[in-house]
Amino acid sequence: xxxPHDGLGVAGQADDVILSVEDLxxxxxxxxxxxxxxxxxxxxxxGVDLRLKRGECLGLVxxxxxxxxxxxxxxxxxxxxxxxxxxLDGQVVTNRQSGDRKxxxxxxxxxxxxxxxxxxxxxxxxxxxxxPLRVHxxxxxxxxxxxxxxxxxxxxxxxxxxxxxxxxxxxxxRQRIGIARALILNPRIVICDEPVSALxxxxxxxxxxxxxxxxxTLGLSYIMISHDLGVVxxxxxxxxxxxxxxxxENGGWREIFERPAHPYTQALIAAIPDPLHxxxxxxxxxxxxxxxxxxxxxxxxxxxxxxxxxCRHEPGPMLETRPDGxxxxxxxxxxxxxxxxxxxxxxxxxxx
Amino acid sequence: MTGAPLIEVQDLRIDLHDGSRRxxxxxxxxxxxDRGETFGLVxxxxxxxxxxxxxxIGLLRPPLSIGNGxxxxxGNQIQHLSAARQRELRGNRIAMIFQEPMTALxxxxxxxxxxxxxxxxxxxxxxxxANRLAVEALANVRVPAPERRVHDYPHQLSGGMxxxxxxxxxxxxxxxxxxxxxxxxxxxxxxxxxxxxxxRNLCAERGTAILMISHDLGLVxxxxRRVAVMYAGRIVEExxxxxxxxAPSHPYTQGLVDSLPRLGSxxxxxxxxxxxxxxxxPAITNFPDGCRFNPRCxxxxxxxxxxxxxxxxxxxxxxxxxxxxx
Amino acid sequence: xxxxxxxIIGGALFALAILVxxxxxxxxxTDPVLDANLMNAEEPPSxxxxxxxxxxxxxxxxxxVYGARVSLTxxxxxxxxxxxxxxxxxxxxxxxxxxxxxxxxxxxxxxLAIPSLIFALAIMAVLGPGLTSLLIALGLTNWSFTCRIAxxxxxxxxxxxxxxxxxxxxxxxxxxxxxxxxxxxxGPIVVIGTLGMGSAVLSxxxxxxxxxxxxxxxxxxxxMLSDARDQITTAPWLSVFPGLAIFLxxxxxxxxxxxxxDILDPQSxxxxx
Lengths: 352, 326, 273
Known about the structure:
The complex is a heterotrimer of chains A (352), B (326) and C (273). With 352 residues, chain A is an alpha/beta fold.
């Protein structure tokens, strides 16, 4: 199913890397009047590098406006990058011809956040799952039926339920249908965009367990987008933390969650309330900056308690990769590393 | 009046009129909040937590109505007050902030005017005086450059700033109770932390009690002194926040805590399959008989399927509604 | 309860009109065109001549019954043409956006600025009178409301998760528009279509009244009114009965449209929550 296409060059890649995003930038020009003189540029994503290995789950963490959804849409081919390239399974897919969307669809799929809005209310479950197969050239009725039934069993639904409409299902079941739809074409990579945040708390564990099971049984790789750090820690092998269009920290889950090196990652983790341990929530000071008017220097500097002159004036620090693969983009990460231990001991990262 | 609770709810039932049918969207809801206390109601969508809050301030609208039960504010039954007295109570003594501040703020009025209005309406101030107080109120919720921000319209502010404005409006008249219904669900976590700390500190300074409603166990446990967990229209457990999630007595609370991927637990315990709560959240029109959690409960026995459990007092303090509680 | 009454009365009136048109050969007493007999000219309504006769002695009842065929054909077919044009333009404009959207928007605004009857008159003037010209003229001039509704629906629906999901699954644009967007905007389109049928019936009457409709002697309600113009005081039944037929059909269609809106709208709202 993965025949080469026009416009898709073969790039040399290590075998186990199934997706690599290289220096990705997505800029949106915002209309500035008819004359376009005051036209401004929203740098939604500005120089992002990511690598996803086969069978891994890469957590993509960040707050609204950090650009994590833009990265996802670019990988899915729904946005055209301004700069950089995306290599999927050894094929550069960044400058696709129009016909290649179908090939891309068989490689990357997506599980959506809202199980209510993401299913067509006028289509039965069967239709929702059969149509993609037909679009992708599966014609034998028996094969279609088999694959739909198998997929429904995979996600914990009964094939007899396939004649029903979405509104006849609960939120958790709808998300199972959404997962089935994402997997029906046998993709290699699944982007999960906040897959449990719209679900009831008592249902979330079911869906998280299901996603992890499917990853192992079907040999999938995940990109897990979430603001729920508990979910990300539980599911991810690697984690990338984004802030205002850039990756500020990148590493194995244990590095990120046990030894967060960037002040923003530290602040994010300290801001999560835990049901079992009560401490005042760590506050960072100030709101997220306006992405149209990003701060000079390091984007986090106006909110960072470690910020010094260099942070405020030198343009954003590059990610520096340590020997263990843990990469941090912070001018002062060395000095902070020492202080972080102190700060976490009193559970508080206060803004002075 | 000292010693009496600020607000007391007894055996409240809220009816949902569904055509000719009448179903109890909430029932047997009882709790009290003392002056200056912080109390949390946690539960999933449809468990009745938000409509309970609306009932407290007399804002239930058809098809919802209070079926029976008593709500007392400083000893006076709220339902028996005239519409005018109820209105006076809202805003002045009981204030509320909502999940999405954009829908709660008037989009065509500057935020300063919306705050000042509270002083004019409830405190009888002149507009000049009220405008001065509005700047002060914005300063109190740590909005930078408040004297300029008062002229801004809601859409000019970020989500976090809007929620600060909402808090300024809510606390303008120095209410005795602040009802916060999912106040930070629409916000990012770092902004959430700011807003929560702000709300908590301001209320503590002024002795304002908080009724916080949320689906986020961690948030409620951190903000509130006492927490009640609601499931399918009933309070199933009410405890001090230090204990309720550490040693839950109700299987539902236990299930929630166990099913949560808590930050740090993988590092400490390794990744294991999360414990699931089986089944689905029942719909209001289809609540099961007996204990409403019984179809999803591993400990359920025959009695759970037929008899509604009474609320028992726990020896360690707190209340639980379960036939087999620990 | 009131909502239901709309639907039932409107549906019944419309169904009655269609039945009358379909069963015309069995319901009519005489041939509407051939059975002219000057002996019976201008008889008032009676047991023999239910609705009276015209100046050529033709049975008005039979002519009204046969007239239903023309009026309803024009109403239904021209509105179908309008709906197809409106949905095709509006749906594609809303979904694709860009220059195509600008073009469609401009076209719609022009159409809304010209009174549709005047526009239809101009088309008729070029094509000449007759049923086909009538269908074309009315079918090309009344799609702007449908187009607006379709465009607005497409705009709001295209950001829905399931439309995004279809894009991610590699569906082509046409397939997305037909299988994902169209079924979800059908409610308001049907309502507009029903109301549009009513106004098409009226436009047919107006154009026929002006002598641009179906060629005499074949009856349509509009041309019957037109013929009765001179005898409106001496033989009022000539205009009253076709007028009543138009009135009841249009009333029925409007009630039906209202009723459909009442049952289709809350559904589309509750789907979002």
